[in-house]
Amino acid sequence: MARIAGVEKESAGLFTRFVYWMTRRKAGRVILPVKITAHQPRLLRAMGEMEMGQAAVHSVDPILKVLASIKTATLIGCPF
């Protein structure tokens, strides 16, 4: 049980309702961390932008990601 009560749809603003709709579409329900973050709309927007950025990572070729990972590992001296 969370210490902070989340923002319910009835008391949410237009942007928050849109985020709730997107979350429900993606996860099947509005998850509690989104409801709690909705208390600060700027933070909710930043969280959404981060999610969109992570989703865009799939636009890079997987082989290029592996090559970048290997190059980074060699630069920092990581054996993995």
Give a verbal description of the structure.
With 80 residues, this protein is mainly α. It has one domain (9-76). It has helices spanning 14-27, 32-37, 41-56, 62-76. The longest helix is centred in the middle third of the chain and has 16 residues, at 41-56. The chain is elongated, with a radius of gyration of 18 Å. The mean pLDDT is 85.
What is the CA–CA distance across the termini? Answer: 39 Å
- Average pLDDT metric: 85
Order of helices and strands: HHHH
* DSSP strand count: 0
| Weakly predicted, low-confidence segments | none
Q: Structural class, please?
A: mainly alpha
Helix and strand arrangement:
Layout: H1 14-27, H2 32-37, H3 41-56, H4 62-76
Q: What are the salient characteristics of this protein?
A:
80 residues, mainly alpha, single chain
How would you summarize this macromolecular structure in one to three sentences?
This protein has helices spanning 14-27, 32-37, 41-56, 62-76. The chain is mostly helical. The longest helix has 16 residues, at 41-56.
